[in-house]
Design brief:
This protein has 316 residues and is α/β, with parallel strands linked by helices. The chain has twelve helices and 15 strands.
């Protein structure tokens, strides 16, 4: 982040901008509050006029003195280049071009991780209640890609690029009968909205969007089968990640796709596949981990607001 240490944070507003793989979400907020003001969503096409869009926000509300971006891509030094689109943003360049006091860049799942502490049990659907045994949580979700972050003691957030790793893919494809697919090479090729599309196209020999597949589940047996295979694969991927990160505080799922998938998810089957083929010792460990779906929408914006609220308190 880039900041003038003399800047006052309280009594000023922050503009929150979440640039995902499909949409841009924005909101304004008072620093110190938990309320999003006028949250909006628009298509990524608006990135073509990004500078103009940002300047319009600042022109319309002169009390906006701070910016927090959450962006789908890894942060290197003070910039982020998007994973699935040609777009790059740099904190220093933003401060040079626009009249604001601070600019903060977060990976999108880093932002969601900062918001995890905001959500109570009533804000979640529990797939496995578990019995928490440490202070590490894993938060993740399939969308345009597969995003994830590790959250330690509610304060340290470590974003990952786990969706671009390779492990388990050959065995998973063999298990669900997709060995002929040559366009599934990394985890998020399978565990994402695009992955659901690929499963359906393999079974039905035709294409539907992920939204169309979900909407057709009650009338199209192949759509239903595609969702079942997706959830089976997801639970087994989750098992691998659970043993890699040991999130004894829980695994928390977020995002629009997993919220839409939840109504098709059978908790018993999900947990059965989560622990399948594990040694008894590791099965016992996995069953202690809570698994829950966060009901809240716009989790990136809520997390970004919580991030700058916490950051402003460190300057008191």
């Amino acid at each position: 982040m880039v900041i003038n240490p003399q800047v006052e944070f309280l009594n000023s507003k922050v503009l929150l901008i979440d640039i995902g793989g499909t949409n841009i979400r924005t909101a304004v907020a008072e620093i110190g509050s938990n309320e999003l003001i006028n949250p909006t969503k628009q298509n990524l096409k608006s990135l073509d006029t990004f500078d103009e869009m940002l300047q319009n926000f600042l022109n319309e509300n002169s009390s906006i003195r701070h910016l927090v971006f959450s962006i789908a891509g890894p942060k290197l030094h003070q910039s982020i280049s998007m994973t699935n689109r040609e777009f790059r943003i740099d904190e220093t360049e933003i401060l040079k071009e626009f009249s604001v006091d601070s600019c903060h860049l977060l990976n999108d799942w880093e932002a969601i991780g900062h918001g995890l502490s905001l959500f109570a049990k009533d804000d979640m659907h529990f797939i496995n209640t578990g019995d928490p045994f440490n202070d590490t949580a894993l938060i993740l979700g399939p969308g345009t890609g597969l995003g994830a972050a590790q959250v330690v003691n509610d304060s340290i957030v470590l974003p990952t690029e786990i969706g671009n790793s390779l492990f388990t893919i050959p065995n998973l494809l063999l298990d669900i009968g997709l060995t002929s697919k040559t366009d599934i090479n990394i985890i998020e090729d399978l565990i994402s909205g695009g992955g659901l599309v690929k499963i359906y196209s393999h079974l039905a020999k035709t294409n539907k969007s992920s939204e169309e597949i979900l909407n057709a589940c009650h009338s199209d047996e192949l759509a239903k089968k595609s969702v079942e295979l997706f959830l089976k694969s997801f639970s087994q991927i989750l098992s691998e990640l659970a043993l890699a990160f040991m999130p004894g505080k829980g695994i928390y799922l977020a995002g629009g796709l997993i919220r839409s998938l939840y109504k098709f998810l059978d908790a018993d089957d999900f947990i059965k596949n989560f622990v399948i083929n594990r040694k008894s010792m590791h099965k016992e460990v996995l069953l202690q981990m809570p698994i829950a779906l966060i009901k809240q929408e716009m989790t990136c914006l809520h997390g970004s607001l919580n991030f700058i609220n916490k950051f402003s308190q460190t300057l008191d």
